[in-house]
Write a structure and sequence with these properties.
The complex is a heterodimer of chains A (109) and B (420). Chain A is 44% helix and 9% strand. Chain A has two domains: 1-36, no CATH class; 47-107, Cytochrome c-like domain (Cytochrome Bc1 Complex, Chain D, domain 2). In chain A, strand 1 (23-25) and strand 2 form a beta hairpin. Chain A has helices at 3-13, 47-54, 61-64, 71-83, 94-105, and strands at 23-25, 29-31, 69-70, 106-107. In chain A, helix 4 packs across helix 5. Chain B has two domains: 1-24 and 45-280, Sulfite Oxidase, Chain A, domain 2 (Alpha-Beta Complex), CATH 3.90.420.10; 308-419, Sandwich (Immunoglobulin-like), CATH 2.60.40. In chain B, strand 3 and strand 4 (68-74) form a beta hairpin. Classes of the chains: A mainly alpha (109), B mainly beta (420). The interface between A and B is large, with 54 and 64 residues.
Chain lengths: 109, 420
């Protein structure tokens, strides 16, 4: 199977949710389909920026599963994503993204 | 043939665009629905569970090759095993085994006849091994061993710490079969200056600037006869989400070193200083593994697991029948000295009795235990278990371990039940 064919196959089934039976041939090839993100980045200040910059690498679960974090903690997370994990945004995005995260799962103001 | 999650994108920019489109699609599908994260305190749906800490509401979702498991994150995929699974036996079924990926660009299609493990660096003869080579050209070894995420139980840390907010189900125990890493390294022939072995799997970062997930272990550990490149899990192929076609097994050590879809072993002549060794997955150097919040302490890479045990047959808050004997079951494990005894208490640790130990599957395995109590009507019980290993190490009693990474929790856990 060529890469292109597989790509088309994957695209065709990408909309299906969970429970896909793995395709196996001769026990050598295993192919699965991963469900789409279970929850989205909800509306809030600068939500589009969060969807773009946070959503590149990870689902919104990473925000909502955390205990409510203080502004200092979210600020540190946003900076860590940029400096350590290479998130592609400039320093000017740190406050807007922190504001969004505070609106979603913040402690204090 | 290896198809990645975002297989049709060839450049990082295309990948990001594609993921963004998929994300928007997900927003479109789900955006108008009442998302469970927003329903604080709302009733649980049939396919939801509430882990016992803030923001602990989780969905139960069946991923490919898996039964419904507790969904922590969907991209990268992280799935937690419900505690009731551990009451099914000492061995954790493949379809219930927890899942933890670090980086979203992971293969979703793999051809085991083509997938190759490269062994290179400070070796005399570089190797390129397929699954068939591992199966046919190396002595097969079988070991039953617990695989536990470094961050297992992070959600119980107080004060809370950011990270993957697991309850106690980021662990599992399986019969692993594979080739010794030692035999592979011996075949390649280590150069005299070899210091560490760097391990990389087929998962990769989405953003170009994200450090690839690479771990390293000392040569002495890499040459330990119990460290395997495992191509079989409980007598079957590994589920893709657990690292098909093969993963590293480092019995006694936390799962961060158990590299899934292992495709690159590089022998190096220094101590690895990449992000995932130098900065992440660090624990306080103090033998307690503990520190005060806000304190800055010397750290070392996380390594061996600590002694733990759990009650598995009854859940916290359960009602149990009064007036007749109740068998309480659980599991215990350590880092490979084996469980010597498990003590059991029904009164929160004031009085202890010996629990009976189940079948011994080896020193790296879960050991099941059981004990009896006859609950009296109207009484409440604080069930606890305390495991002690072969060299006398026990679980921590009293104040739980605290460190900013949320690692090494091994306090005596309490399950409260009442008899009605």
């Amino acid at each position: 199977m060529t890469r292109v064919t597989l790509a088309l196959l994957a695209t065709a089934v990408a909309g299906l949710v969970a429970c896909a039976t793995p395709v196996a041939s001769a026990d050598n090839v295993v192919s699965i389909t991963l469900p789409e993100d279970h929850q989205s980045y909800k509306d809030g200040p600068n939500a589009d920026a969060a969807r773009t910059y946070c959503g590149i690498c990870h689902a919104a679960d990473y925000v909502y599963m955390q205990p409510p974090l203080t502004r200092a903690q979210w600020d540190a997370e946003v900076k860590k994503m940029k400096t350590v994990f290479g998130a592609p945004y400039g320093d000017d995005m740190i406050k807007p993204l922190t504001d969004y995260l505070m609106s979603q799962n913040g402690k204090g103001s | 043939m290896t198809t990645r999650r975002d297989e049709s994108a060839d450049t990082p920019v295309e990948r990001i665009d594609q993921l963004r489109r998929r994300l928007m699609k997900a927003v479109g599908v789900l955006g108008g629905a009442s998302l469970f994260a927003g329903r604080i305190g709302g009733a649980l749906a049939a396919d939801e569970v509430m882990l016992p800490f803030a923001n602990g509401r989780r969905a139960l979702v069946a991923y490919p090759q898996k039964r419904p498991l507790i969904l922590m994150t969907s991209r990268p995929v992280q799935l937690e095993t419900p505690m009731s699974v551990f009451d099914e036996g000492a061995i954790t079924a493949n379809d219930a085994f927890f899942v933890r990926w670090h980086l979203a660009d992971m293969p979703i299609t793999l051809d085991a006849s083509k997938f190759t493990l490269k062994v290179h660096g400070r070796v005399k003869t570089p190797l390129a091994l397929k699954r068939e080579d591992l199966q046919k050209n190396f002595e097969p070894v079988e070991i039953t061993a617990v695989c536990q995420c470094s961050g297992n139980s992070r959600g119980f840390f107080e004060p809370r710490v950011p990270g993957g907010e697991w309850a106690n189900g980021a662990m599992g125990n399986a019969v692993w079969k594979g080739a010794r890493l030692k035999d592979i390294l011996d075949k390649a022939g280590l150069e005299a200056d070899a210091v560490q072995v760097r391990l990389n799997g087929a998962e990769g970062p989405v953003a170009p600037g994200t450090p690839d997930f690479v771990k390293a272990i000392d040569v002495d550990l890499a040459r330990h006869p119990d460290v395997l490149v495992a191509y079989s899990m409980n007598g079957q192929d590994l589920p893709l989400l657990n690292g098909f076609p093969f993963r590293l097994i480092v019995p006694g050590y936390f799962a961060t070193y158990w590299t899934k879809m292992l495709d690159d072993v590089e022998v190096i002549n220094k101590v690895d200083d990449n992000f995932w060794m130098k900065t992440a997955y660090r624990i306080p150097a103090d033998p307690s593994g503990s520190q005060e919040p806000g304190q800055t302490v010397k750290t070392v890479p996380i390594n061996r697991m600590t002694v733990r045990s759990f009650v598995t047959s009854v859940a916290d808050g359960a009602k149990v029948p009064a007036g007749r004997p109740l068998t309480v079951r659980g599991i215990a494990f350590d880092s490979g000295y084996g469980i010597r005894q498990v003590l059991f208490s029904t009164d929160g640790g004031r009085n202890w009795s010996q629990a009976r130990l189940g079948k011994d599957y080896g020193k790296y395995s879960f050991r099941q235990w059981e004990a009896n109590v006859t609950p009296a009507a109207g009484q409440s019980y604080a069930l606890q278990s305390l495991a002690i290993n072969g060299i006398g190490e026990s679980q921590r009693i009293g104040t739980a371990v605290w460190n900013p990474g949320g690692y090494l929790r091994n306090t005596v856990e309490t399950v409260r039940v009442s008899a009605g």
